[in-house]
Automatic annotation (TrEMBL), chains A, B:
Oligomeric form and interacting partners: Homodimer.
Domain Thiamine pyrophosphate enzyme TPP-binding: 433-515
Needed cofactors: Mg(2+); Mn(2+); thiamine diphosphate
Chemical reaction(s) catalysed: isochorismate + 2-oxoglutarate + H(+) = 5-enolpyruvoyl-6-hydroxy-2-succinyl-cyclohex-3-ene-1-carboxylate + CO2
Domain Menaquinone biosynthesis protein MenD middle: 213-403
Gene3D superfamilies associated with the record: 3.40.50.970, TPP-binding domain (3.40.50.1220)
Pathway: Quinol/quinone metabolism; menaquinone biosynthesis; Quinol/quinone metabolism; 1,4-dihydroxy-2-naphthoate biosynthesis; 1,4-dihydroxy-2-naphthoate from chorismate: step 2/7
Keyword set, alphabetical order: Magnesium, Manganese, Menaquinone biosynthesis, Metal-binding, Thiamine pyrophosphate, Transferase
A Pfam family this chain is assigned to: TPP_enzyme_N
Name of this chain's protein: 2-succinyl-5-enolpyruvyl-6-hydroxy-3-cyclohexene-1-carboxylate synthase
Its biological purpose: Catalyzes the thiamine diphosphate-dependent decarboxylation of 2-oxoglutarate and the subsequent addition of the resulting succinic semialdehyde-thiamine pyrophosphate anion to isochorismate to yield 2-succinyl-5-enolpyruvyl-6-hydroxy-3-cyclohexene-1-carboxylate (SEPHCHC).
C-alpha cells in the first residue's frame, strides 16, 4: 500500500465518521502539517469549513459555534505553537462544559525532540483541561486501522458531548508527503456506511428512594429559595418554574439562567437581588432555611455573600454534570441528577406547599428595588448602568445578547431585568476571562438570528483580531463597546484606594480610537453621543449587516460614583421599608 | 501575625530576591489575584515594570527582552485563562532556550475545582514545557517561610538560566484581601541582605581524553565542513572562525549563527549554500566526509537534504545545552560541551591541516552563486528576494534585524549575505511559529540600538495587538511588512499544485489595509512604491522614533516564479562550471 493511499483512506474515514456523528462545523487554521485533514475536510459536502489564521481566535470562534448550535465543533491546526494558541479556549470550554473536538497535526515519532522545525511535545498538551487525549496511530489502510480511526472519532465526539460536555484532543502524527489523493471517491464505504458506532449517552438521575428522601426534607419548609446560575439543560426553564410554584419558593435567576427573558411564567422570578442583597436589613428579613441551587455559580457577589451568611440552611446543589460547584462549601446535599429530570420528578413527591408569606417578602423587596431603578433611566448622561437597564427594551425580538466579562456581565446581572421578550443571554463564564470574547460571539452569531455583543474596551481590544472572521465571512454582528478607557472593574476593588500606581497597574488606559481598526475590517462605526442616537441606531440595527460597532464613551470615576449612589439610595429605601412596614 | 503583614513580607521577600538575582525587567498583565505581587513590584526602584493587557503578547514581549538583554525576565499574570495565554511564548522559550520566570497568581486550595470564578487547574499548567514547576506555599511571615520564598526565587532564576536555559513556572495561591501594606520598608532585610543564595552555574565540557580522541578523528581529514545554526554562546564567533582556519574547513553559516555580519574573519564563511545546494552537480562536487555541527538546526532545507544525502560522513554534533538536535539521526558523535570551550580547546589538539582544495571548491561555488545574485539586484520591480538581498546595505550600523518566520527567514537565509556591518539577526526559531513576532521584536528593541522587523502580512496580523506596547511605551521600531496578501510559503509546497481550495485553505488572503491599524497605534505608515523610496525611507529611518511601518506589496505567484527562475539560472551556471572547469 503506498503512502498517499494510506494517508487518504485513513483521514477520509475519520472525516466521514466526524460528519456522521452530527458535526457540521469545522474551524481550520492554515498550516502545512495539517494539510491532509484540511484538504479532505474541504471536500466533504456536508462540512461548513471556516478558516481562521489566528489559532487563539479560531478556537474561541469554534467555542462560540458550539455554544450557540448546541453541537460539538471540530477545530484543526498544524503542529507547534499553533496548537498552544488553542489553550485559552480549551480551558474555557472545559469549565463551561462546551464540546470541542481539538485536532492537532504533529510530526511523526522520528521527528520529535530532535530539533526538527515546528515540532513541540504535543502529548497531553492541554493537561487536565481536556476530557480525553489520544495520540493517534500513523495512517494505514488496513481494515483494523480504518475501523480504529472511525471508532476513535465516534468515541471522541461522544465523550465531548457526554455530560458534563467538554473538549477532547486527538493528536495526529503525519509523515510527508502530505497531499492526499482527492481523485478517488473519498467518503464512500461499504462497511457500516451510516456510521461505525452510535453512542447513546445517558443522563444522570437519582432513584425513587432518593427522590422521596429529598422531598421529605423539603415538605413543610417555609423559607426556601431556588438559585439558578448559568444553565443550558433542555426543558429546565419550564421545569424549574413549575417546581417553584409548587413549593412557593422564589427563584433567584442569574442572567445566564435564561429565566429572566421569555414568555414563561415569571411569577416567582426575582431579578433585582444583586442590588437589594447589599442591604443588611433586607438580608435579615429574607433569611432562608433551605436553598436549592442549579447551574454554575451565579455572577452576583452580593448573592454569594448572602448564601455564605446563611450557611446553616439546608443547601441542595443539583448538577446533572456530576461536578462540585460549591466554592463556599455550603452544600448539605450534592445531587448528581439531570436538572430537568430533578424538577419534574421531585414535583410529583411534593405534598405540602409553603405559605406565600416568605415568597411575598422577596417579591415586595424586589418590586421596591425595581421601582427605584427609574432613577437610572432618568439620568441624562450616557451611563453604564442605564445602558444595561434599557438593553432589554432596545433589542429586537429573538436577539442574542453576548456579554463581556468584568463589568458588563455584572451590570447585566444588576440591571438587565425580567422581560417577555425572547432574548438569549450568553457569556464565557467557564473561567470568566476577557480573552476571545469577540471570536466567541462571532461564532455564536452564525447560529443566532441577531447577535448583540456588549463589552468593555479592554475586552474588545484583547480579541480585536477576531473581527477578521466577520470581515472574511460577512458575519453580522452588533457590538456595543462600553469604552471607559481601561479596566473599569478595578475601581470597585480595594486596590482603588491606593492611588499610587493604580492607573499603571489596574486602570491601564489604552487611549486608542477603535474607529481605525473597525475601518480596517470594513465595519461600520458609530460613536454614540446621546440616548436618542443610541435608540435610533439600535432600532435601525436589525436591518444593517456586517460589523456594526456602537461605541459609548463613559468615565470610570463617574461610573463608580453612579453605581454607589444608586446602591445607597435603594438601600435607604429598603431599610425604611423593612423597618417601617414590617417590624 | 495578621494576613496583610504575612502577605506583604512574603511577597516583598520574593521580589527583593528576584532583583538580587539580576533580573531587571518584569512584564505585568493587569488582574485582581496578582495584585500583591504587582503592587510590590511597582514599588521596587530597580525593577523596570512593563504593563501589557494581552497576556499572549505580554509573554512574547518578555521573551524578546530576555533574548536581547541576555537576562532572565519575569512575567506576571492573574489566575484563569490569562495564564493559558502565556502558553505559546512559553513553548517558544522552551525550545529556543530563553530564560523566563513565569509567575501566575492562583486561587488558594479551598477555591479550586469548586466552581469559583477565574479558578482553573494551574498545577503543571504548562506540562513539560517548563524546566521547573513550583506550587508555592501560602504567604507566611515566619523565618522559615521567608527563607523558603527567597530560596525558591534564587533557585528558579538559576534553573531558568542554567544551560539549556528555559522557562520555569511558579504558581502563587493567594487569599483575599489582596492589597499589601506598602507603608513599611518593603525591601530591607537583616538576614543575608545581598541575596539569600548565589548559584554558580557551570558549563558542560568534555575532558582531555575525550578532546584527544575527537581530535584524532579529525586529524588528516580533508573533506570537512562546519555547520553553524542559531547559536548565542559567548565568544563562539571568534572561536569557531579560528578552528575553521586551523582545519581549513568551510563554515556553512546560518543567518542566525551571527557569523555573516561583523568584522571577524570571514575567509572560510560560506553564505550562499541555500542556493547552490539545490544543484545536483554542486552537491556531488562538494561531498564531505566529516561534518561538525553547532547550534540549532539550520534554516536551509537544501542544506538539511544535503546532510542527509551524506549520511556516511562522520557527524559531530556539539551542544553545550546537552540537547539532541539531530532530526535526521546523522550524528556519529554527540558532544555535550560548551561550544566556545570546544572550539578553543580542540584547536590545541589539531596537528595536521587539511589541504585547501576542498575548501577552495566550496569558496568557488559560493562566489559563482553570489555573482549571479546581481540578477536579483537588477530587477526593476519591488520583489521579496531583492529586498532581502539589499537589506544588509540598507540597515544602519549596529542594527538588529528581527525576522519573521515562514518566507522572510528563508529569504534572509538565501539572500542576506556576508557583510562587515555590525548587524545582529534574531528570530523565534524555537518552534518557528508566526505568533507573537511583533511583541518579541518590541521586547528585543528595548535592548537594541535600532531594531528592524521584517515579516509577512499574516505574521504581522497574528500579533497586530502587540503594537499597543510600542504606543504606550514609545518604543522605537521599524517594521517592513512584505505584504503578499496571504501565506506566501504555501506556494512553494506541493499543495500549491492543487488549485481547488488552495486559496481557501492555504493562500488565505486577508485583503486588509494595515494603514488603519497603524494609525490606531499612532504609528507612521508608508506604502513603498519603488526602490528609491525604500532606500530613502531606510536612510531617514534611523532618525525617526515610534512605530514606523513600511509596507511592500508583492505578489505570491510572481514571487514564486522569480525565485524559481533565479534558482534555475544559477543552477545552470553551477553545472556548467562543475562540468567544464573541474571535470
Amino acid at each position: 500500500m503506498n503512502h498517499q493511499e494510506s494517508l487518504t483512506a485513513y483521514i477520509a474515514a475519520f472525516v466521514r465518521e466526524l460528519v456522521q456523528t452530527g458535526i457540521t462545523d469545522v474551524v481550520v487554521s492554515p498550516g502545512s502539517r495539517s494539510t491532509p485533514m484540511a484538504m479532505v475536510m474541504a471536500e466533504h459536502p456536508e462540512i461548513k469549513l471556516h478558516v481562521h489564521v489566528d489559532e487563539r481566535s479560531a478556537a474561541f470562534f469554534g467555542l462560540g459555534i458550539a455554544k450557540a448550535s448546541k453541537r460539538p465543533v471540530a477545530i484543526l491546526c498544524t503542529s507547534g505553537t499553533a496548537a498552544a494558541n488553542y489553550f485559552p479556549a480549551i480551558v474555557e470550554a472545559h469549565y463551561s462544559r462546551v464540546p470541542l473536538i481539538v485536532l492537532t497535526a504533529d510530526r511523526p515519532h522520528e521527528l520529535r525532540e530532535v530539533g526538527a522545525p515546528q515540532a513541540i511535545d504535543q502529548i497531553h498538551l492541554y493537561g487536565h483541561h481536556v476530557k480525553w487525549f489520544v495520540e493517534m496511530a500513523l495512517p494505514e489502510k488496513t481494515d483494523d486501522i480504518i475501523r480504529y480511526a472511525r471508532t476513535v472519532c465516534a468515541r471522541a465526539v461522544a465523550i465531548a458531548s457526554q455530560t458534563p460536555s467538554g473538549p477532547v484532543h486527538l493528536n495526529f502524527p503525519l509523515r510527508e508527503p502530505l497531499v492526499p489523493n482527492l481523485d478517488r471517491n473519498l467518503f464512500q464505504t461499504e462497511e457500516r456506511p451510516k456510521g461505525y458506532v452510535k453512542v447513546h449517552n445517558g443522563d444522570l438521575t437519582i432513584n425513587n428512594t432518593q427522590f422521596k428522601e429529598t422531598a421529605a426534607k423539603l415538605n413543610g419548609k417555609v423559607k426556601g429559595i431556588i438559585v439558578c446560575g448559568n444553565i443550558e439543560t433542555e426543558g429546565f426553564v419550564d421545569a424549574v418554574t413549575l417546581l417553584a410554584s409548587a413549593l412557593n419558593f422564589p427563584i433567584l435567576a442569574d442572567p445566564l439562567s435564561q429565566l429572566r427573558s421569555g414568555k414563561h411564567n415569571k411569577e416567582n422570578i426575582i431579578d433585582a437581588y444583586d442590588t437589594f442583597l447589599r442591604n443588611q436589613d433586607a438580608k435579615s428579613f429574607l433569611k432562608p432555611d433551605v436553598v436549592i441551587r442549579f447551574g454554575a455559580m451565579p455572577v452576583s457577589k452580593a448573592l454569594t455573600i448572602f448564601l455564605k451568611e446563611n450557611h446553616c440552611a439546608d443547601h441542595f446543589v443539583i448538577d446533572g454534570g456530576g461536578g462540585w460547584r460549591d466554592p463556599s462549601s455550603l452544600s448539605t446535599d450534592m445531587i448528581f441528577c439531570n436538572e430537568t429530570i430533578f424538577c419534574t420528578t421531585l414535583l410529583t413527591y411534593i405534598e405540602t406547599k409553603a405559605s406565600k408569606s416568605f415568597l411575598g417578602n422577596w417579591k415586595d423587596i424586589n418590586k421596591l428595588t425595581k421601582e427605584h431603578m427609574t432613577t437610572i433611566r432618568d439620568s441624562i448622561e450616557l451611563s453604564e448602568s442605564r445602558l444595561f437597564y434599557q438593553l432589554a427594551d432596545m433589542l429586537p425580538e429573538g436577539a442574542t445578547l453576548f456579554v463581556g466579562n468584568s463589568m458588563p456581565i455584572r451590570d447585566v446581572d444588576s440591571f438587565f431585568l425580567n422581560n417577555d421578550r425572547s432574548i438569549k443571554v450568553m457569556a464565557n463564564r467557564g473561567a470568566n476571562g476577557i480573552d476571545g470574547t469577540v471570536s466567541t460571539a462571532l461564532g455564536a452569531s452564525l447560529y443566532s438570528t441577531s447577535l448583540y455583543l456588549v463589552l468593555g474596551d479592554l475586552t474588545f481590544f484583547h480579541d480585536l483580531n477576531g473581527l477578521i472572521a466577520a470581515k472574511l465571512y460577512n458575519i453580522d454582528i452588533h457590538i456595543i463597546v462600553v469604552n471607559n478607557n481601561g479596566g473599569g472593574i478595578f475601581s470597585f476593588l480595594p486596590q482603588a484606594e491606593h492611588e499610587k500606581n493604580f492607573e499603571l497597574l489596574f486602570g491601564t488606559p489604552l487611549n486608542i480610537e477603535f474607529e481605525h481598526a473597525i475601518r480596517m475590517f470594513n465595519g461600520n462605526f458609530n460613536k454614540i453621543k446621546d440616548w436618542d442616537q443610541l435608540g435610533l441606531n439600535m432600532k435601525n440595527s436589525s436591518e444593517t449587516t456586517g460589523i456594526n460597532v456602537h461605541e459609548i464613551l463613559t468615565n470610570r470615576d463617574r461610573n463608580l460614583a453612579e453605581h454607589r449612589e444608586f446602591w445607597r439610595l435603594v438601600s435607604q429605601e429598603i431599610s425604611n421599608f423593612v423597618k417601617g412596614d414590617h417590624k
